[in-house]
Specification:
By secondary structure, the chain is an alpha/beta fold. The chain is built from 12 helices and 13 strands. Its EC number is 2.1.1.37.
Length: 395
């Protein structure tokens, strides 16, 4: 048997990034994650991995060596928190120097464990981000990795190009101490109308409906954390998602009010809450008055025969099912992210906003719920494509 590459997932969240590497044939040795519920999810799905629940800054060099130094880690993955670089963040034009951020912790792991390959994932806007001194953030990141002896390349990858039924662009920085002919995988899929007419080599990317149509049909308030399948798998994607699973986890519909269901029923594909009739407009919190705010991106009904829009951390309020008058379940989001059905998410499905918990001093309740864990993840199929390309050359 050939030796499997050993992978450590830092800032791991639920573990979508490392799951893709496992799918490609690597061995997931461990994870470091600061959120309790995300750690519980990782442990449940990688029972043999060493999962460390800790703020990475609190693990000194000797502790890192004690935990993972004897494992001879080949690949370190990481998605250091990127809120400062996101286009959704209004302050993204004025980020801090990455040398004073959690990126430095990712580098420190590289210095201690000396893996052959380090791969960092982030938002595409990082390419345009500069520090307060005007330096490009990505230039600093590249230079710091090069100082450790790595060849470094970066690229923005589109998830639909690798069979993920979701329009999702992410930046990947690959740093390697072995000679790579190609740092990034070639596309394997395309959206139907963009197929190469001459070579016809690419598969069609699954649509949203391809991804979720076999899941048990639920109305608002229906479903549960464990369910039986009620419909057959009817395409390759669905059959792949079901491999290794006899039951279904995390398929519980939101407990919508009668008024919200009525609002959703008035919306056609492509509509959002702002398109609902006046009498069904959202109300102010704890009030019977109409809200003056109208968020065009909230509660948009998705087209079934297209890839889904990007699944964010708060997607429980972003999308309406193509045919049902409710938001997506956590499992539907997991399918759109390409998590297989055997992968179970721990913790509560949703919690009250982190801002409210902080305001009320309830920080002990501040965890990543199932929806957060799913939305924050690297889609496993996208990670698998990156992994197959790297692992093939490492052999």
């Amino acid at each position: 048997m050939k030796k499997k590459a050993k992978v450590l997932d830092t800032f791991s969240g639920a573990g979508g990034f490392s799951l893709g590497f496992q799918m490609a044939g690597a061995e997931v040795i461990g994870a470091i994650e600061s959120d309790l519920w995300a750690c519980e999810t990782f442990k449940a799905n990688h029972p043999k991995a060493k999962v460390i629940h800790s703020d990475i800054k609190k693990l000194n060099d000797s502790k890192i060596r004690e935990l993972f130094g004897k494992s001879k880690i080949d690949i370190v993955l990481g998605g250091p928190p990127c809120q400062g670089y996101s286009i959704a963040n209004k302050k993204s034009g004025d980020p801090k120097d990455p040398r004073n951020s959690l990126f430095e912790e990712f580098l420190r792991i590289g210095k201690i464990l000396n893996p052959q390959v380090m791969i960092m994932e982030n938002v595409p806007n990082l390419i345009n981000s500069r520090t307060q001194n005007g330096e490009f953030v990505l230039t600093i990141i590249t230079q710091e990795l090069e100082k450790l002896g790595y060849d470094v390349q970066h690229k923005v990858l589109e998830a639909t190009s690798y069979g993920v039924p979701q329009i999702r662009k992410r930046l990947f920085v690959v740093a390697s101490k072995i000679k790579l002919k190609s740092f990034f995988p070639e596309p394997t899929h395309c959206i139907n109308n963009t197929k190469d007419l001459f070579t016809n080599k690419l598969d069609s990317c699954p649509t949203l409906w391809d991804a979720i149509s076999d899941l048990p049909e639920l109305e608002a308030r229906e479903g549960g954390e464990v369910l039986q399948y009620t419909l057959p798998a009817i395409n390759k994607f669905q059959k792949t998602m079901r491999i290794g699973s006899k039951i279904l986890f995390n398929h519980k519909a939101m407990n919508h009010s009668k008024r919200l269901v009525e609002r959703f029923s008035s919306m056609k594909w492509g509509d959002s809450s702002s398109d609902a009739p006046d009498h069904l407009r959202p109300l102010k919190r704890n009030s019977l008055e109409f809200s003056e705010k109208s968020f065009d991106q909230n509660n948009r009904r998705m087209y079934p025969e297209k890839p889904c829009h990007t699944i964010p951390a708060s997607f429980y309020a972003n999308f309406v099912h193509p045919y049902k008058n409710r938001n997506f379940t956590a499992r539907e989001g997991a399918r759109i992210q390409t998590f297989p059905d055997w992968f179970v998410f721990k913790g509560k499905p949703t919690i009250v906003s982190h801002k409210l918990l902080q305001k009320e001093g309830r920080l002990e309740e501040k965890h990543l719920c199932q929806y957060n864990q799913i939305g924050n993840a690297v889609p496993p199929f996208l990670a698998k494509a990156i992994a197959k390309n790297i692992l093939k050359q490492m052999e």
